[in-house]
Structure formats: C-alpha cells, structure tokens
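Record type: monomer structure entry
Structure origin: computed from sequence
Chain ID: A
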Amino acid sequence: MRYFAFRSLFSAPKNFLHVFAIFGLASILSGTSPARAQIPGAKIYAEYNIHFAGFNLGMLKFSSRTNGANYSMKGETEVSLLGGLIYKWRGKTSASGSYKGYTITPKRFNFSFADNKKSGSIKMRFTGAQVSSLKIRPHKAPSASAIPVTRSHMTNVYDPFSALLAFTSTGKSYKSVCQKTIPIFEGKMRFDIKLSFKKVARINQRSSGGYSGRLVVCKAKYVPISGHKPHKKEVRFMAKNNGVEVWLMPLPHSRMYVPYQIIVPTPYGTGKLVSSFFQIKQYGRPKVALVQ
C-alpha cells in the first residue's frame, strides 16, 4: 500500500512533490530584507532530507548566489525507493533575475525531471512583469477539465524559485516573518502560497553545531487559481489542507530565518522536509554554518 502511495506522490512533478518542494523552499530567505540579505557576493547552500510516511526518501540540495543586483539559484532533488531499484525520481531547477529594494524581477526559470519511465522539462522567460516565453516538454494540450490559464495569470507572478526572494521580510517580530502571500506560476498552474503566524516553538539540539532555541512556526496555505483540475483529489485536499507548517529558525549573526522543517500532510501520509546542513557566506560577515 505504501509503495502505491509513494508512486502517486512522486511519479509526476505536478502532484505533491512540486507543491511540497515549493512549500519547503519558499521560505529559505524569510526573515530579512533584500537590501540586507542580498549583498554582493552572498552565497547560500542548504541540504534537506525528504521523509514520507516513515520512509527516508532522499535529499533536496539548494544553492543561491548574488552579485550586485542580480541573483541566481540552483536546486537538485532526488528521491528513491530501495536505493532506486523500485523507483527513482530526479529533478533539477534553476532561476535567475534581478532585484532592486523589495522589487524582484525574474528573468529565467528552468525545471527538468526524470524517473524510471519518463522525463520532461519546463523553460520560462520573463520580460518585465510578464511571462514572455514558455516551453514545456513533452507538449500536451491543456485538459478541458482544467481551469484555463489566461494572460493575466502570467502577469505579476514569480516562478517557484524566484518566489524565495519574494518571501523576504524585515523580521521585526515573529508574526511579521510569516505574513506573506506570493503569486506563483510554475509553467502549468497558477496559485498563491499564503503564510500566516501559528506559534513559537523551542528545540534543544545535543549535536555539535546544531541549533537550540526558538523556532517560528508558520501556517502555509495552498490556493489554486488556474491550470489545475478542480475535481482532482490532490488539488482538493491541498486547497483544504490546514496542516501544512513551515518551522523557521534564525541564523546566528544574521536577521535571516531559514526552514528547520516543513510538514505537509497528504492523503497518503505525512511528508517532511528536514534540514541537515545550512551555510551562508556574506561579504564582510562571518561564515555561518549549521549542522543538524
């Protein structure tokens, strides 16, 4: 039973895996203003273990780099069952663009995936505030049962990776870290992710280099707008799901908050994205590294 649940979750990037990754990554830069976090020469590298229904399925690796007013990001995800003998899924994502103050302007977004049986990719280009080019492989006509995506749905939006920067905050209070609504278009679907404050928690790590202290727990809400099939079980479940949580921890010597763990209940079991390593290098500041 768990095997079929696993296949349902990870066999298609349009299902929970894509939404799960977005929930997990959309807060990586939460808690700091772009002017403070994205200084020239800033580099971030993070690793997260992926758990689902009691299984340790793989790892998500994320890196970003800024130079002046430009940014670039890369991410790699690999999940497998029994070391890939039964099932393996790999995904790569990259994005780049520019920022000025609190204004984030995406320019390029690339996503590719492959599993045991199929592969595909999404390439988006932006001009100003609009998606100007979109290539999806393999090409498939939109389903008649899907909510149509209009030109307005591809205007004033972020790709999933550039949404990371859009989730920035001054972090003056715990509640302000979580108060965000971000419009996202990932190539086929348009949706919002809404964060709101839920509580403050505390952890005590015994391992050397681990974080001990307060965590800000945000409630995350998935709001589908277009490109989705309203009758799909996964879509209806996620739209009604009030159990998604993003646990954020503050980085030492920084106003930045990064995800300690992300919890995503699904109809097949609970998925978790748990941090194992996080490092940030900023010009003129001490290097910060956390090992969980």
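Annotation 1: The two ends are 31 Å apart (CA to CA).
Annotation 2: Residues 2-291 form one domain.
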